[in-house]
Design brief:
Layout lengths: L57 H5 L5 E2 L2 H7 L8 E4 L3 E8 L13 E8 L6 H12 L10 E7 L2 E7 L6 H6 L8 H19 L5 E2 L8 E3 L5 E3 L6 E2 L8 E2 L11 H6 L1 E2 L1 H17 L15 H9 L19 H14 L10 H13 L51
Parallel strand pairs: 1-5
Antiparallel strand pairs: 2-3, 3-4, 4-6, 5-6, 7-10, 8-9, 11-12
Helix pairs in contact: 5-7, 5-10, 7-9, 9-10
The chain binds adenosine-5'-triphosphate and magnesium ion.
Magnesium ion (MG) binds next to loops.
């Protein structure tokens, strides 16, 4: 977390990437003249739908009335000079700090008073850079939904780029599933998190002009005090295909282990790519294992490959279930969830369900008698018989997509490093 301790102004990585033509162009900051021509989608649920109908310049995006432009000094004060002990976490973009602002004036307030915020600060050598920072402001600044994290504001001053979010007290799903410390999530909470995240994705996909999230993974699912899930990190979000187009062609970006195979291979992005990633996270919720675990050997490194054969077999499913559940889950519901995961992971994108269908199935599961409470009919899973090994509690950063079949060159930006 070395970068978190450096409170000097962050430099901005303004590397822009091209799309699936196979080229990648790097535009230096000096040649990046600010305004970009980003195409915006419109949504009935948006806070200011009219501003999303037309392409907007960078300046217009940043002028959105729903997000506050903060000065660097304000955020420095709000986080007590980006104190190391207020670090909430670190990702590809940089470190996330806890801070306080007055809930009415949105100015820095004393720690412990006002509203808690999470401040994400671009690190000097951040990969995601300016373009993703702007994309995040563009989408999260306009989209409002109970299952999307709220962007309070941003800071763009000199080379510094920061994002200010509502604080999510329970942190990320990744922390709860894979790290030592928090109590293991009970079955009912896992189902609740899956439903919240599915609702967020379904909202994006079914919006008047579709949004493809492209970075669905456990670390981007944040949890409030009641374990309501909210999606964060819209830096890779993309407008879905319009008219009679079936997909959008993009440079392959995402996170290894979560990205859909056909997208890695072709750069063709559809909402079904998100559905695949949802299937991976559903498997993580069932198994307590990471999508990609380099600490393991052979097939066990790859959760999907390892788990797939067990998903359709009621009697064998217990073998992949999280031992931390200690058998406390309803057998039927677990099997239904596993079947759903298997459908989401179908290699043929067209046969994957839509997120709205996934959501309905999960909601039915939650509503069905005994889905979350009946622990009498648990899998008869003598924990010792499970092939699961202890989940490692260290953090892994599967940041390089290495699609063997990808036609894309191995430019830094073409294979996303997150
Ligand atoms: N709004 C928030 N409230 C509370 N904690 C947060 C918030 N946003 C981020 N965090 C914490 O900071 C951590 C780092 O988040 P960040 O989005 O920068 O990286 P990441 O998602 O882990 O990785 P990547 O850069 O690959 O997306 C999260 O895992 C979470 O624990
Ligand atoms: Mg994240």
């Amino acid at each position: 977390m070395g970068n978190c301790l450096n409170s000097s102004s962050a430099q901005v990585d303004t590397t822009l990437s091209s799309h699936a033509s196979g080229t990648s162009k790097n535009v230096s900051k000096s040649s990046y003249s600010g305004p970009s021509s980003l195409t915006i989608s419109s949504y009935s649920e948006m806070s200011s739908a009219s501003s999303l109908q037309t392409p907007r310049s960078e300046g217009e995006i940043l002028l959105s009335p729903s997000v506050k432009p903060f000065s660097f000094i304000e955020l420095k004060n709000a986080t007590r000079n980006f104190r190391p002990d207020s670090v909430l976490g670190e990702g590809g973009f940089g470190c996330v700090f806890k801070g306080w602002i007055d809930e009415f004036t949105l100015t820095a307030s004393k720690p412990g008073s006002g509203m808690i915020i999470a401040v994400k600060k671009l690190k000097p050598e951040g990969y995601q850079g300016h373009k993703e920072w702007l994309t995040e402001v563009k989408y999260l600044g306009q989209l409002r939904h109970p299952n999307l994290v709220k962007l309070v504001g941003y800071c763009s001053e000199g080379d510094s780029r920061l994002l200010v979010y509502e604080f999510m007290p329970k942190g990320s799903l990744e922390n709860h599933l894979f790290r030592r410390g928090p109590q293991p999530l009970p079955w009912a909470t896992r189902l609740k998190v899956a439903i919240g995240a599915a609702r967020g994705l379904a909202f994006l996909h079914d919006a008047e002009e579709q949004v493809i999230y492209r970075d669905f993974k456990a670390s981007n699912i944040l949890l409030d005090a009641e374990f309501n899930a909210k999606l964060s990190d819209f830096g890779l979000a993309k407008a879905g295909p319009t008219g009679d187009k079936t997909h959008v062609s993009t440079q392959v970006m995402g996170t290894q282990g979560y990205a859909a195979p056909e997208y890695i291979a072709t750069g063709r992005l559809t909402a079904k790519s998100d559905v695949y990633s949802f299937g991976v996270v559903l498997l993580e919720l069932l198994s307590g294992r990471r999508a990609l675990d380099k600490q393991k050997t052979g097939i066990e490194q790859d959760l999907v490959e390892w788990a797939k054969p067990y998903l359709g077999d009621k009697r064998k499913l217990f073998r992949i279930m999280d031992t931390k559940l200690e058998g406390q889950y309803p057998q039927k519901a677990a099997y239904t969830a596993a079947t759903l995961a298997s459908q989401c992971l179908n290699l043929e994108p067209k046969t994957r369900p839509r997120m709205s269908q996934v959501l309905s199935s999960l909601e039915e599961l939650q509503a069905s008698k005994g889905a979350s409470k009946d622990h009498h009919k648990v899998m008869s899973s003598p924990v010792g018989k499970s092939p699961m090994r202890q989940v490692p509690h260290h953090r892994q950063s599967p940041r390089n997509l290495t699609p063997l079949a990808s036609p894309l060159p191995h430019h830094r930006q073409s294979l996303q490093v997150r």
